[in-house]
Amino acid sequence: MNKKILAALILNIFVVVCTAIITTSYYFYCNNPLVETGFDSYKFFTTDSNILAGLTALVMIPFEIQILRGKRKKLPHFAEVLKYIGMTSVMLTFLTVMILLLPLYDIKYLLLGTAFYMHVAGPLAMLVTFIFLETDSKIKLSESFLTLLPCVLYGAVYFIEVVIIGEANGGWMDFYTFNRGGFWYITAIVVLGVVFLIATVTRLIHNKMVKVNSDERSETDDKKS
Description:
Blueprint (H helix, E strand, L loop, with lengths): L2 H23 L19 H24 L8 H25 L5 H5 L2 H20 L7 H4 L3 H18 L18 H41 L1
């Protein structure tokens, strides 16, 4: 049995189930003042990135089941790229919480209850599966730029709501403090740089593990022959 794929499958199911339960719960009850209820919860990148991560983990599940049943040998490349995008997005959430938000908000609202999964457990599960377990094909440098898309799309909406419209006119408050002092453009450059740094580091580790995985397969095939 492919132990790596089995471990990845378990973690992916964990990610999908927890994301579905927690994001659905926002429509009924939430005792965290940093999280809006219902549709308003989608204004937070934490929610959006975790949903994206959950969807990319969901894509992996049927292929991993097929591998465990002996129906296929490798994960499709497009699925690994999607997982790469989802992982990078939630790792941005993880780093934002750890570096930017912890000094500003009470730790119980960031690292306890459902927030622990959304800010820590979910992102780390995605990281572990991508760089250590789902390593059948290498990620190209050009594909790293795809990881910027979720951040760019969210950033565009955040910019319109916070800077263009403004809280006083019915837009969002600057809850991530990205426009502190009016320097939103500096924040944008820094955030995109951090995303690409995450993408680069994890790509290099992933690709290294792809080589290790390939060597292990070769050794196994040699023993069988």
